[in-house]
Predict the 3D structure of the following.
Amino acid sequence: MESLAGQFLIASPYLPDPNFLRTVVLMVQHDTEGALGLVLTRPINLTVQELWKNVSGEEVSAAEAVLQGGPVEGPLMAIHQVKELGEIEVIPGVYFASQRENIEPLIREGKHPYRMFLGYSGWAAQQLDDEMEVGGWLTLPARKEPIFESNTDLLWKSVAGEVGANIIRESLNLKSMPQDPNMN
């Protein structure tokens, strides 16, 4: 299966895992060894300001919610738009970081949009491919604007709606439909 890195995964009703109900996952990596993604639609009751105070003892003005990136524990991670602080380019102009030296400037300066995550979504080799084969996930090429949408309900609705519209458009086969409906 081709790499899903740089795609949005939208959990379908065929995915029984409650960790992913009504989620949009940004796929950061996907290869033969496994996959890593971050859930964009699971804010937790913690702001970046509170988290940073606990982690570093520093006061910063960052009222954004921290997101639960998935059910797997891991380091603090960020998605952002600063090339110099990026470890992986997820899509053009959007970067992933998990190293403290790359995350600190994002939080301290607060000049550029970013999303902070605790935990991540991880899949072993072939696991995500198997979930895809049984219809567990719908996909959509990731775009910058939805990634930084702060209203997670709006994010899920817009991305899921776009996937639904694409499915309907493909099933209608509009290319072979005559211009004049009377020709049907």
